Amino acid sequence: MLAARLEDLMKKYKRTSDIKVGVVGYGGAYNMGRVHLQEMQKAGMTPTAVTEIDPARLAAATEDFRGIETYSSLPAMLKKSAVDLVTIINAAQHPRPARASRPEGGAARGLRKADGDQDRGM
Length: 122
Ligand SMILES: NC(=O)c1ccc[n+]([C@@H]2O[C@H](COP(=O)([O-])OP(=O)(O)OC[C@H]3O[C@@H](n4cnc5c(N)ncnc54)[C@H](O)[C@@H]3O)[C@@H](O)[C@H]2O)c1
Prior knowledge:
The structure is a single chain. By secondary structure, this protein is of the alpha/beta class. Helices cover 32% and strands 20% of the residues. It contains four helices and six strands, in the order αβαβαβαβββ. It has a six-stranded mixed beta sheet with strand order 3-2-1-4-5-6. A hairpin with a 6-residue loop joins strand 5 and strand 6. It binds nicotinamide-adenine-dinucleotide.
């Protein structure tokens, strides 16, 4: 599903690096937020924003990705950031932040749950 979504995005963007990516959840247990951002960066995309409810983890994200935007909620991120593709990587037992938010004018954005069960456009 992500590959299909990327194909859609590439119709809009000239280069892979034009795709601004973000994550929701930047936990330290398995560092999956960092891993996902690093993998998207390796694929050529540009890490741009992190949403995390724990301020200490937002600080960690800022150390890992200098200059990255940080937010405490997904609606705030989608309202203010130009991020194009967001991976939801908070733990399974946490509420899914995506259900509460559908940004105005967000039709070109991608939203995916990292476990692959929720890939969908917004
Ligand atoms: N499939 C795999 O191979 C694999 C491997 C490792 C981890 N995982 C899973 O990936 C998930 C994430 O791993 P992790 O190490 O980052 O876990 P973690 O528990 O350390 O981090 C989850 C983070 O999400 C944040 N969070 C919770 N609700 C939020 C919300 N509404 N908005 C923003 N942030 C929110 C928490 O503050 C926490 O920092 C876990 O469920 C883990 O089990 C899967």
